[in-house]
Amino acid sequence: MRPAAPLLAFALVAAAPHAAALPVPEVAETVETIHYDIAGRNEGELARQMRLLGPDGFFGRLDHGLGYRYGYVWDGRVCALSEVAISLELTFRYPRWTDPDQARRRVREAWDRFYAALVVHEEGHAEIARAGAQELAEALAGLPARDDCDRLRADIAETAREVMGAMHEAQRRYDAETGHGQTQGAVIRTRR
């Protein structure tokens, strides 16, 4: 009789009114762009200013926050998610060249190429964060009901930890593969 118990438990979970997977929620995304001011007449001066004033010594950066909240119900037999909400906050940090008119045209053109490449690189980070947020939405919405709410909460926390860990690893790999944007052209020459 012992092997029948898991089958019975599965049947109760499958038949529970709240055991069905939730619809995958849309990710609520907020985006902010913050600029730090730099000045210079040549690429070397601009690079020095960015190293000095940029976020943690980088020329640009994307900060992202991935959050989730949920509700659940206990029907006397199983505990199941009743709602899931996912939020993603993206904050882009870029340099703003305050005195480009003081530089030669060649420097301004080089700056334009550099800045466009920096934006492409940081947007790559944003896409990884968006993919992670979508993966978290799908994973949480698909969690099955559990026989108690403590177990369900533990499953939610572990799922979020795994998804967020994978997203952070993807961000690290992206920077390693692109040399923090250098292979994408986010390079400014410091010598002629």
Provide keyphrases for this structure:
three-stranded mixed beta sheet; alpha+beta; disordered N terminus
Task: Give structural notes.
With 192 residues, the chain is α+β, with helices and mostly antiparallel strands. The chain has one domain (21-184). Helix content is 47%, strand content 23%. The protein contains four helices and three strands. Strands 1-3-2 form a three-stranded mixed β-sheet. Strand 2 (61-74) and strand 3 form a beta hairpin. Helix 3 packs antiparallel against helix 4 (149-178). The chain is elongated. The model is unreliable at 1-18 (pLDDT under 50).
Helices and strands, with pairings:
Layout (H helix, E strand, L loop, with lengths): L3 H12 L11 E12 L4 H11 L7 E14 L4 E19 L7 H37 L7 H30 L14
Parallel strand pairs: 1-3
Antiparallel strand pairs: 2-3
Helix pairs in contact: 3-4
Shape: elongated
Following the backbone from N to C, one meets helices and strands in this order, namely: HEHEEHH
Helix content: 40-55%
Runs in which pLDDT lies below 50 for 5 or more consecutive residues are 1-18
Q: Could you give the distance between the termini?
A: 82 Å
How would you briefly describe this protein structure?
The protein has 192 residues and is an alpha+beta fold. It is 47% helix and 23% strand. A three-stranded mixed β-sheet has the order 1-3-2.
